[in-house]
Design a protein that fits this description.
about 350 residues, mainly alpha, two-stranded antiparallel sheet, 9 strands, about 45% helix, disordered N terminus
Length: about 350
């Protein structure tokens, strides 16, 4: 019997194909390393349209701010893992029966030459087993290769940009998939001539923020601006130019993705975090979040949840963790009290 293995959003689906007798079997489910291999092709949603846990049906989902994983707080099920493993392709046989495989590191967009170039190293050019004429020829070839690799302005731009991108990804602790997506967007912007007349670090930071938005990794514009050493206003200008030039459609940011990070920084407990998520889901259902900053909404939901539970969470700590003012939190809290009243929660001052 032949099985087909496909990875979908952090889960693996094993579907038995028809055997030689033509009989088909139903999809089976196997537990593998704490995750579940099931026949689901999409993550289930509730009647409001939000994701629910496929294992227990609970809507209490949180996102790890460091790794980007979506985890169910009820049963611990991992719904999705945005990180991808970049490995060399599996060797396969050609039509002639020859075994073809790739040697060396796998190709990556975040590498200047995509790890596909051949480099004559200094040790190879200085090999004592070669004659003097052969070593001299290798040194000439090495010099010619170095000049040719950085000959064009586009090549020099890519070399500096990819180096800055790796440094920025390391400071922000971003997954590899975000770095690769940002590198791909920067290459597209460079081919369209968008980088001309703009600083490299600004376009690298804008590509990184766009990649975080596309991969649902919670990194705010202020965090990326601080890590790249530029103002938030200037980074927002480069980001708008990048999105407009590449014709990329960005989804509206979900304030639920910011709750976990803000709660961790402000020192809120898990019960307050879960109640804040419940209030935000009701607010989204009532469309209270339309036109509101997701960081301000998340901080206000945590403040309201802490007041309802009587938890000691200071408003100024929430404002500092979310990067907003206390006035913004108080304004958003007035909007969220409608959602709390709809849930039957007690009214607080």
């Amino acid at each position: 019997m032949v099985y087909r293995l496909a990875d979908l959003a952090g889960t693996s689906t094993v579907t038995p194909e028809k055997d030689q007798l033509g009989a088909a079997q139903a999809p089976q489910t196997y537990p593998v390393q704490g995750r579940m291999m099931s026949g689901r092709r999409t993550r289930p949603r509730d009647e409001v349209g939000h994701y629910v846990c496929p294992n227990c049906g609970s809507p209490s989902l949180v996102r790890d701010a460091e790794t980007g994983e979506v985890i169910c707080t009820n049963c611990g099920f991992v719904l999705s893992d945005p990180t991808e493993q970049y490995a060399a392709p599996v060797p396969r046989r050609t039509e002639e029966g020859l075994l073809e495989s790739q040697s060396g590191p796998p190709g990556r967009f975040s590498a200047f030459d995509k790890n596909l170039s051949t480099i004559i190293s200094r040790a190879q050019a200085s090999n004592r087993n070669l004659s003097a004429d052969e070593r001299l020829q290798l040194w000439r070839l090495r010099r010619t290769q170095l000049r040719a690799s950085a000959g064009s302005s586009m090549a020099r731009n890519l070399s500096r940009a990819m180096s800055q991108l790796r440094g920025l990804s390391g400071r922000l602790n971003l997954p590899e998939v975000v770095t690769e997506r940002a590198a791909l967007m920067y290459r597209r912007a460079l081919n369209k001539g968008l980088v001309r007349g703009r600083p490299i670090n600004g376009m690298v930071a804008a590509s990184t923020y766009a990649a975080c938005r596309l991969t649902d990794v919670p990194r705010s514009l202020s965090e990326i601006a601080k890590a790249s050493g530029m103002s938030r206003k200037l980074l927002a200008h480069y980001y708008r130019a990048l999105v407009r030039s590449l014709d990329v459609t960005m989804a509206i940011e979900d304030p639920l993705k910011r709750v976990s990070k803000i709660a961790s920084r402000a020192g809120a407990d898990s019960q307050t975090e879960m109640l804040a998520g419940k209030i935000l889901r009701e607010a989204i259902r009532l469309r209270v979040n339309v036109g509101k900053d997701p960081d301000g909404l998340a901080a206000a939901a945590l403040d309201l949840a802490a007041r309802i539970r009587g938890s000691m969470v200071m408003q100024r700590d929430l404002a500092k963790a979310a990067g907003v003012s206390e006035v913004t939190i108080r304004s958003r809290m007035r909007d969220l009290k409608t959602a709390a009243k709809s849930l039957g929660l007690p009214d607080v001052a």
